[in-house]
Amino acid sequence: MSKLMKYWTMDAIGRDRLSLAATEVPRPGVSEVLVKVSAVSLNYRDKLVIETGMGLSLAFPFVPGSDMSGVVEAVGTGVTRFKPGDRVISTFAPDWVDGLNDGNARQPPYKTLAGFYPGVLSEYVCFSEGWLSAAPLSLDDDEASTLPCAALTAWFALVEKSIVRPDQIVVVHGTGGVALFGLQIAKALGARVIVVSGSDEKIARAKTLGATHGVNRQTEDWVEAVYQLTDNRGADHILETIGGAHLGQSIKAAAVGGHISVIGVFDGFEISGPVGPLMLKGVTIQGIGVGHRRALENLTNAIDQHKIKPVIDACYAFADLPVALNHLDRGAFGKIVVRIA
């Protein structure tokens, strides 16, 4: 008899359309790898896709979730990159190996897992071997599952697209997955990090991870605080995870020649800001759409080298995905993980 597996699926957009289903475990074909999934980490994007579809042309039934870790169970003919027993993680944009992503000015590239392609909230996935990357040796399965989107986004912004140097000033907004990875990566590279948050408790926790300063945006003007903390130099790098009109504040806080990486959309998909300081300071604003597989491999090596440990706020059982999404609603300090195995 064929072996069965469980997976989360949607027949339409909306949390109320999520359900657990069962099907046969697939068999790997040519150049394919069958992975027994161990853990899936959730991103804010996953919540948006489930609740709104994010304007994507989702093919129903649809499996959500883009970031997973697991163990190779079987390989098809022609596979050379992995063998049974290898620990692997998914790649967010499977076709993007290096260099520029596919796409053009009219149709920007966005062929991702849990979007253009099916997601990974399943007991098994069967992917092309090129869609996977080796898991770090120093991380367990829960920790490894947090890397493909959040960690790679921070790495791509701070290392791949603009190189952080020792003693530079890095500002991160919030204490979610991307922000805390940005803090840890910047700290490992010798930078000084200012965390901007609306919670004194979360600021205190961020300082235990290496943040040099914390600013509570609820009780003080965070831009003025950055001026004072840097003797008016400003921030060399800012991870702009809020978006909308908040970009204008980041432009004001940026140093001469500073870099702002636009990552998040909490305040909306339309961004705005003052052109004066943007031009006079020569600020670079760059959009970050996660990153490619080669950068993920470099990140994995850096994780092992610098002994960076992902921050996991909570882990949930596979059947408790709705509860995990509720936690995501409330906001997490770091990542939320759903354990499959």
Q: Can you characterise this structure?
A:
With 341 residues, this protein is of the alpha/beta class. The protein folds into two domains: 4-149 and 291-339, Medium-chain alcohol dehydrogenases, catalytic domain (Quinone Oxidoreductase, Chain A, domain 1), CATH 3.90.180; 162-287, NAD(P)-binding Rossmann-like Domain (Rossmann fold). Helices cover 28% and strands 27% of the residues. The protein is built from ten helices and 15 strands. The protein is globular.
How would you concisely characterize the structure shown here?
By secondary structure, this protein is α/β, with parallel strands linked by helices. The chain is 28% helix and 27% strand.
Name the descriptors:
single chain; 341 residues; Quinone Oxidoreductase, Chain A, domain 1; Rossmann fold; six-stranded parallel beta sheet; 15 strands
Counted beta strands: 15
What is the CATH topology classification name of the largest domain? Quinone Oxidoreductase, Chain A, domain 1
**What is the radius of gyration computed over CA atoms, rounded to a whole number of angstroms?**
20 Å
Major sheet details: 7 strands, mixed
Indicate the mean pLDDT. Answer: 96
Helix content: 25-40%
What characteristic shape results from the CA principal axes?
A: globular
CATH architecture title of the largest domain: Alpha-Beta Complex
Low-confidence stretches: none
Give the structural class.
alpha/beta
Distance between the termini: 22 Å
Strand content: 25-35%
* CATH class annotation of the largest domain: Alpha Beta
CATH superfamily grouping of the largest domain: Medium-chain alcohol dehydrogenases, catalytic domain
Number of helices: 10
Topology order in helix (H) and strand (E) letters: EEEHEEEEHHEHEHEHEHEHEHEHE
Number of domains: 2
